[in-house]
Design a protein that fits this description.
Layout: H1 2-43, H2 48-89, E1 91-93, H3 100-113, E2 119-123, E3 130-133, E4 141-145, H4 146-151, H5 154-170, H6 172-203, H7 218-242, H8 247-260, H9 263-273, H10 284-287, H11 308-319
Parallel strand pairs: 2-4
Antiparallel strand pairs: 1-2, 3-4
Length: 382
């Protein structure tokens, strides 16, 4: 059943990717029609059926330009989406020399399953998170934050890398990038139409044709319909992103356990990441790609990730892992600073204990001998 679920998920992702691209063109044409209807309503006060026919005629004329513009948008996203994400998150590619431990962990996982190794990137951010991006084998990359590297041990880091590799292998990354492209395109066209509308409304850029005797009240209704269509297109672009199955996160967790044979490492990694993954500079589209997205939707209806509790529960139930519960991370003390205050003794404050490895000063007895000075032939025996 597990294999059936995995392969059906991969096939579903491929079908959804194609459907998302088709949906992008549909939404763009819908926005163009809404913009044309808006323009007709602002320039001509005529019956609603006349305004709709005029808007359809405008759509027909602008159809080639809208199609070419959408294709150009997709090509730009295909070529430069990684650069844009890196600019937002501060990720930069690293080599084996720069990050030997992390590089070797990823390389070993790829070799063990014959997977083409993606590019490895590090984002200098204190948040605990990681994500994968790319549309094909030449573009795939995994980005890990510096905070995650500092907080997780080797086994936990390996589990996170296995999770992101599974996203790549299952086709989740390609589908998420396409969804981000759709949201960006619809937001761009929608904002452009709204700007044209407000400019025309405030600065009188459009003038109505036809006298008072020709007015039939259709312009007002056409305005309402046009604005409603724009809002619907914008909402649909958001729903497309949230409609992506949250099942992908459960499958990626399971894929990580399959690669590492260590469910406890995946569980402890999730517990450490829990509530600490906020990338302040990243937008919501990037956060949806991360291993955990602390920005959850209203009443969990539009949440892009299942809760950490439910993911851990699944790993405990199906992979035999053990849940340690929420993990509190210790904040490391500054160099030379005590991790805890030293209590005073009965006759005053205690001396600060010597740090391990401190050199013995000439003329001072070693602390290990209880204050006994050395003899003429060496230290006294206890």
């Amino acid at each position: 059943m597990a294999a059936y679920g995995l392969y059906s998920h991969i096939q579903s992702n491929r079908r959804r990717s194609i459907a998302l691209l088709i949906g992008l063109f549909f939404l763009v044409y819908l926005l163009v029609f809404a913009g044309a209807l808006l323009a007709e309503a602002l320039t001509t006060d005529a019956p609603i059926d006349y305004l709709v026919r005029a808007a359809l005629y405008d759509l027909t004329k602008s159809f080639p330009f809208a199609t070419i513009g959408t294709i150009v948008w997709i090509l730009i996203a295909y070529k430069f989406h990684q650069s844009m994400i890196d600019a937002v998150t501060g990720g930069h590619e690293v080599t084996r020399t720069e990050e030997p431990k992390l590089y070797n962990l990823l390389e070993n996982l790829c070799i063990s399953r014959g997977i083409t190794m993606p590019k490895l990137k590090v984002a200098d951010d204190d948040a605990l998170n990681a994500f994968a991006t790319g549309l094909n084998e030449k573009q795939y990359s995994i980005t890990v934050t510096r905070g995650l590297m500092n907080a997780l041990n080797d086994a936990e880091l390996e589990a996170v890398l296995g999770h992101e590799l599974t996203h790549i292998r299952n086709g989740d990354v390609r589908m998420l990038v396409i969804a981000v492209v759709i949201a960006g395109a619809i937001s761009f066209f929608g904002e452009m139409v709204f700007r044209l509308f407000f400019q025309s409304a405030f600065y009188g850029g459009f003038r109505r044709r036809g006298g008072d005797s020709d007015r039939k009240g259709g312009a007002g209704l056409a305005l309402v319909i046009a604005i409603a269509l724009i809002v619907v297109a914008w909402i649909l672009s958001i729903v497309i992103r949230f409609a992506l199955s949250r099942q992908r996160e459960y499958l990626a967790d399971a894929g990580s356990v399959e690669l590492t044979k260590n469910p406890d490492a995946m569980i402890s990694a999730l517990r450490k990441i829990e509530g600490r993954g906020e990338l302040v500079s990243a937008n919501s589209a990037v956060m949806e790609m991360c291993i955990d997205n602390p920005r959850q939707g209203f009443a969990d209806l539009f949440a892009t990730h299942p809760s950490v509790d439910s993911r851990v529960e699944a790993l405990v139930k199906y992979a035999g892992g053990h849940d340690p519960g929420p993990i509190a991370l210790d904040v490391p003390a500054e160099p030379g600073q005590l991790s805890a205050p030293v209590e005073d003794g009965p006759w005053g404050p205690r001396d600060q204990p010597e740090q391990a490895g401190d050199p013995i000063r000439p003329g001072e007895p070693p602390a290990s001998l209880g204050g006994q000075p050395d003899g003429p032939w060496g230290p006294h025996r206890g």
